[in-house]
Amino acid sequence: MSDNFLSPKDSSKNESRRQFIKTTGSAMVGGSLAIPMINTIPAFAKGNADTLKVGLIGCGGRGTGAANQALKADSNVKLVAMADAFEDRLQSSMENLKKGHGDKVQVDPEHQFVGFDAYQKLIDTDVDVVLLATPPGFRPQHLTAAVEAKKHVFAEKPVAVDGPGIRQVMAAAKKAKENNTAMMSGFCWRYHEPKRAIFGKILDGAVGNIGTIYNTYNTGTLWSKDRQPGWSEMEYQLRNWLYYKWLSGDHIAEQAVHSLDMMAWALGDKPPLSAVGTGGRQVRTDDKFGHIYDHFAIVYDYDDGQKGIHMSRQQFNCANSYAVEVSGDQGHAVVDCIKGVHEIKGKDEKWRYRGDSNDMYQTEHDELFASIRNGSPVNDGDFMAQSTLLAIMGRMAAYTGQVVTYDEALNSQEKLGPEEYSWDLEYPVASVPMPGIQDGVGR
Predict the structure, then answer these.
(1) Domain ranges of the chain
(2) Range 32-189+364-379: architecture per CATH
(3) Is the predicted pLDDT of residue 274 greater than 70, yes or no?
């Protein structure tokens, strides 16, 4: 376990960590750590003599977006290598990036890698910064390889889909600190100025002692791709990775983890003792949606009586909600990501964020590249593993119908996905988990 990755039993360390985060949280409120999203060259990047070479692994929409932001973040950066399982995704991404960035995109044919081993071929080149945006099931393997090669890394969320993957990420985070290389997470709300302000105030005690945090991610369903002639089962699942837990971790991990991350943030990133909950597949039942659930409801118990209550669903024509409500003994805070509301009603005062907002996706990369340039590389490894583990705990609790402790989730030996990847592998679709009967283990 990482030295900074706390067990729920380490109460004295938790208290010290809470005090530390309160202090640093206050420092972030004024936005001094963020760089506004602008289309001109950031001040920190002007006059940089050394070109930072970037490689993109995972060329879908999010990967293309991350590369776009990386190319905007620094005056002397070039995209020089790309990797993806699919040639068409790589070419489409490269074409779009060239339209926006011209000669900042210099990916020659010898640095366009396709296939399951494409990630390693890219990492073996002389790139300085690696952007990881493949389906999450591959993240621990790719992250570990990048850190071992002493590359700076941006890793999209979530960072794993199972306990073994989390442990791998924790080890990589520790190694990156030893290497003095950057590890930036895709938990983008941590780089959003309004949320930095409100969570800074919460950590400073604006609502007093927290009793309950209610968080939601209720939305409609997402895309799916029809099976095409010539596609193997492996290709079909990869093209529709959202709907297979070995690739996505289910939607509580792939999407709703953002809300769980904000819950964790408000509590100083301390781990819960256990989780219990429910979920199911009520509306989205067609085979094209794989075997994942379409709704979850999870309760997280903490060591001092605090509770985190989570609700998420992907169902059409239902009320949407993407929010976090923090209730304490001296006030109540609301973060509504749909309405853009950030307010606190405290015992003695009311507060609402009315300052400037920012493009959090761009700020992530601005701060990543700034940290590399100034020799103090950012490392988000501890909290990005912690928040991802919350989602894994919740999924395990809902799938099994049992109480799942933090330690059980962290130390679980359940490894999702095949041992080796092959286009010819007829990887079967697991049955839909049925709490109390069978939990769909193995896929």
Answers:
(1) 32-189+364-379, 190-356+387-410
(2) 3-Layer(aba) Sandwich (3.40)
(3) yes
